[in-house]
Write a structure and sequence with these properties.
Chain lengths: 178, 204
């Protein structure tokens, strides 16, 4: 029952948003086609702009993954992960989630291809990836922009929310998909 | 970020030396660089579509309408702000843009709000309570539809990609609420800021 409602909401959300936005735009006499093209150009520009950041982080995280560091961490925590029914490849996702959004995305597409996009591992990863912003990136950009050097309680609050997010993601994924 | 980046690379090389996988590490550098561009290309289409839709929402005043609805809540969360501060509208807009998954639209607006909060900050080098709250709102980043995640699932041939939307919404909501509750609780146990009128030269 809940799952049906969930599926219906999930499928309808995007079409409804698109329809509402377009209808509202027409009602307000906005040239929606031109506005769309305008915004879409920004989209292309942004995806080009992020390439250097992607290279810096994805190379570093690829190195980390190829080095076997996650296997070392994985074997250290294997028992705990198995007990919590968390696939070993989710461990790096949990760590990188707070560090780099683009690396996380690369990692996630890797999981989706390796395990298949409809596997439990991919779904759990999808929920974790989709439910958080990159704490360290946001800290750097937002506080950096006004020259704040002491973060006070902001960092702890961010990490606290990240941990809660991970815990809830595992719980929800186990409830719906396992 | 400089240290984190260095730390990741250092750990990698050390682990590769330990596991004897230096060759695959070198390989990973090449493949990683290549993959970055592939990801950017995958993203270009979906980003273009979503920013296009968002532009319509922005031009038609839909975004500022939603922002207006959120203003009363923003005033509650940022008690140190003067009631007529433009930061309140910016914060509401920032939240709205995040909600629609438009981090690229949210960031400039959020920075604008941060600059406004800095004006009311008694110590320009440390973050005020309001600034920490705004930051917590953004690190948790409440989002209705995880568009990029969907794009990746679709790109890799998922049969039912939209299945993850609702569970993600549950998680992002709980994480967001705990960020707000967390930042407000931590605010109480964190030593208060001291008045500091001298501003250091910003080294950015």
């Amino acid at each position: 029952m809940i799952k049906t409602i969930v599926d219906v909401i999930s499928v309808w959300l995007i079409p409804v948003i698109v329809l509402v936005v377009l209808t509202w735009g027409l009602l307000k006499k906005i040239p929606i086609y031109e506005a769309f093209i305008d915004g879409a150009k920004d989209g292309i520009k942004v995806s080009v702009d992020i390439v250097p950041y992607l290279v810096a982080i994805i190379v570093a995280v690829s190195m980390l993954r190829a080095s076997g560091a996650f296997e070392i961490a994985g074997s250290l925590f294997a028992g705990l992960l198995e007990w919590l029914k968390i696939p070993v490849d989710i461990l790096p996702v949990m760590i990188v989630r707070s560090l780099s959004g683009s690396a996380l995305l690369g990692m996630f597409s890797d999981i989706a291809t390796t395990y298949g996009p409809d596997s439990y591992t991919a779904k759990l990863a999808a929920i974790m990836v989709g439910s958080s912003e990159t704490t360290f990136y946001v800290l750097a950009v937002y506080f950096g922009s006004v020259g704040i050097k002491k973060f006070r309680h902001a960092l702890c609050a961010g990490i606290f929310a990240d941990i809660i997010g991970i815990v809830v993601a595992v719980a929800v994924a186990r409830w719906l998909f396992l | 970020m400089n240290y984190i980046w260095f730390f990741i690379i250092l750990i990698s090389i050390a682990s590769a030396a330990y596991t004897g996988r230096m060759d695959s590490l070198v390989n990973a550098i090449m493949r990683g660089a290549q993959k970055s561009v592939e990801i950017a290309i995958y993203l270009a289409g979906i980003m273009a579509f979503w920013l296009g839709i968002m532009k319509i929402a922005e031009k038609s005043g839909l975004v500022s309408k939603i922002a207006l609805l959120l203003t009363p809540i923003a005033k509650k969360l940022f008690p140190d702000l003067p009631k007529d501060s433009p930061a309140i509208g910016d914060i509401a807009m920032n939240f709205t843009a995040n909600a629609f998954g438009l981090a690229n639209a949210a960031t400039p607006i959020g920075i604008k709000a941060m600059k406004e909060l800095q004006k009311h900050n008694i110590d320009k080098n440390s973050a005020s309570n309001d600034m920490c709250t705004l930051l917590a709102m953004n690190t948790a980043g409440w989002q209705i539809v995880p568009t990029t995640v969907l794009a990746v699932l679709i790109a890799s041939g998922s049969k039912n990609p939209t299945e993850i939307i609702f569970p993600t919404l549950i998680v992002t909501t709980i994480a967001f609420l705990s960020a707000i509750v967390g930042v407000k609780l931590l605010e109480k146990i964190t030593p208060a800021q001291k008045l500091n009128t001298e501003t250091e030269v910003q080294d950015d």
